[in-house]
Amino acid sequence: MFAKILIANRGEIACRVITTARKMGIKTVAVYSDADARAPFVAMADEAVHIGPSPAAESYLIADKIIAACKQTGAEAVHPGYGFLSERTSFAEALAKEGIAFIGPPVGAIAAMGDKIESKKLAKEAGVNVVPGFVGEIEDTEHAVRISNEIGYPVMMKASAGGGGKGMRLAYNEADVREGFESVKREGLNSFGDDRVFIEKFILNPRHIEIQILGDQHGNILYLNERECSIQRRHQKVVEEAPSPFVTPKMRKAMGEQCVALARAVGYYSAGTVELIVSGADPTGESFFFLEMNTRLQVEHPVTEAITGIDLVEQMIRVAAGEKLSLTQDDIGIDGWAIENRVYAEDPYRGFLPSTGRLVHYQPPAAGWVEDETVAGKPRRGVAKGTGSVRVDDGVYEGGEVSRFYDPMIAKLITWAPTRDEAADLQIEALDKFRIKGLGHNVDFLSAIMQHPRFRSGELTTGFIAEEYPEGFHGAASTEDFRRILAAVCAGNEFTLQSRARRITGQLDTPQPVTSEWLVKLGDERFHVQLGEGHALVDGVRVDGTCNWLPGMVQAEATAAVAGGAEQRFGLIVERIGNQWKVTTRGAAHTALVIPKRLARHESLMLEKVPPDLSRLLICPMPGMLVKLHVAEGETVQPGQPLATVEAMKMENILRAEKEGVIAKINAAEGESLAVDAVILELE
Questions:
Q1: Are strands 661-666 and 636-637 parallel, antiparallel or unpaired?
Q2: Is the pLDDT reported for residue 282 higher than 60?
């Protein structure tokens, strides 16, 4: 076994690998850029080596710097995590030349599966179902249009070397192909250094299901069940779970055996994932097709670990050291259900725009089990079995920055429970306990998904988000009973705040004590609340419960039951903004104005500001670079017409006209870096 390994990565995955290495008694080496000098993974490792400036192209993507760090520290092996150099054949080859082990698959397998065009040919030869399409290089836009017309719409255009949702466009007609083909080429070139594109048929009611593969260097290859990854936004996974609510035992066996056959065909060992597209329109479950094979550890690997009890990172290390798998296919079972949500630095209330910046406050939910070790005085979080458990994989810290240089992930929240509904309920409860301030985040959105009836039914497709939130996200839906509870909570908070103020100022004996009767304006609704001991009457409906909020607190917990119904327990983020309360819970932010009932007639004096009309301006919604201007001054445009393309975090975003008009003035040039809210152009 290795005495010391180096982790050629950063953030949560570096923390994850270090945790398992410690458990195995292996020393660790971290490498870090300028931006990551104070990151948790650097403090966790036994040694750390600075490898350059913040941009990945000048640090994490330079193989020579990683190898130099290995030589400097005596690291015998490198775990690449995911992304960066994890699927670069040249990196694995360079390590081999220096006698340093690569904790991953053989070079030949990486090369064979790294090219989406070639991998489809190999999959077909291995007897794996493949999606109908054009397997070959496409010359130009006209060629792409001819191919798409022959395959039949809808089609998916993909960068051959793509991944992580980059370099992909769905086309429903010829116009979509003409508009998107060049963007796919550019994204492929900018993100992967390869502008080749292929086109394939888009499967109706598609579900994204993947099979976890694990093999050793002695010819043993297993499949560790499946993961459902259908809930995606712009082809980037948001929610993953294991097992899939769609997959039957017969289907699981057929998928697993085909994926093992593919792995065997390329001499695969280590952990890997075969991604499949499955037609949810086929009730037989037989319409599944090969998409690609990821020759590395997946972001969503914890859900597989939770239902199998297998530490995939440990197995990767053991396989790289030449050990045989101690498991057989019969040993692989399914214990309970696991769900993972990706907490991203993005603002779902503003079209999921990237939100980089400083984490002014960061407090994740407490895990259900803590390992018997501490790092820098803090326990590492893990997962345990029982009636339910919570695991948080993160690599950020309060006061640190989510940088524009790297992936916008803040944390991964994993819950395990005996059933799917219980695992989802745990997600909602844990998401309520996240405290993130300083930048936008998607916690509310994730909670809304967990509560959504369609998610609960298991009727998922890759179009879930687009179909269920066609007008964007505006907060999770709530019931009238829950809004009654919130009205009672806000009235109780106002009573507590005013009572405390009177105690501090010595006004307890004033002629008008703090009232117990309130008018609560919650959004567009009004509730009359009368507070009692341990209960409230909200428009005459009794609400029993407690809230542990105290003045100055931001986080609180409440339990409540309406009219003798089932008790609900939930966490709240409580903020006092001016004369109003902002309470965030269960996937939505609620603003409440609370005034004494006797002053209800003065409510109209609380005037609301009318926002200015910005519809004639094209405003840059995120920091990025103006890649292309699609219009010129004096040109008449129609609603929905592309006006500009802005690249942010290596993703191209097409900004479109909201209404008809004439371009009066263009304020930015192609290639220019833009700040958030910069005015790109103006309409007459």
A1: antiparallel
A2: yes
pLDDT at res. 117: 76
Q: Is the pLDDT of residue 519 over 60?
A: yes
At a CB cut-off of 8 Å and minimum separation 6, what does 67 contact? 94, 95, 98, 100
Architecture of domain 4-103: 3-Layer(aba) Sandwich (3.40)
H helices, E strands: number in the chain: 16, 41
Same fold? 4-103, 132-201:
no
Pick the CATH number of 617-683 from 2.40.50.100, 1.10.760.10, 3.60.15.10, 2.60.40.10: 2.40.50.100
CATH of domain 206-468: 3.30.470.20
3 state SS of 430: helix
Mean pLDDT score, 663-677: 88
pTM tops 0.85: no
The residue with greater pLDDT, 371 or 63, is: 63
Who's near 498: CB < 8 A, 6+ residues apart? 514
**Mean pLDDT along residues 229-256:** 95
Whole-angstrom Cα distance, residue 601 to residue 620?
42
Give helix 141-151 / helix 174-192 axis angle, nearest 10°. Answer: 120
Return the closest-CA partner of residue 166 out of 73, 44, 83: 83
For 407, the 3-state DSSP assignment is: coil
Span 132-201 CATH architecture: 2-Layer Sandwich (3.30)
Count of CB atoms situated within 10 Å of the CB of 84: 21
Q: Give the chain's radius of gyration (CA, Å).
A: 27
The residue extents of the domains of the chain are: 4-103, 132-201, 206-468, 480-605, 617-683
Q: Which residue has the tokens 């939505």?
A: 588
Q: How far is CA 441 from the centre of its chain?
A: 10
User: Are 675 and 620 within 8 A, CB to CB?
Assistant: yes
DSSP state, residue 70: H
| Local structure of 139: helix, strand or coil | coil
Nearest to 458 by CA among 201, 209, 289, 156: 209
Q: What is the distance between the alpha carbons of residues 309 and 336, in angstroms, rounded to a whole number? A: 11
Q: Which residues are known to be catalytic?
A: 292
The closest of 569, 572, 568 to 584, measured between CA atoms, is 572
- Arch. (CATH architecture) of 480-605: 2-Layer Sandwich (3.30)
Tell me the per-residue pLDDT of 431-450, one tens digit each, with 9 for 90 and over. 999 999 999 999 999 999 99
The closest alpha carbon to 22, from 394, 373, 391, belongs to: 373
Rounded CA gap, 678 and 684, in Å? 18
Cα–Cα distance between 19 and 85 in angstroms, integer? 21
Where helices occur in 173-233 by DSSP H, the ranges are: 174-192
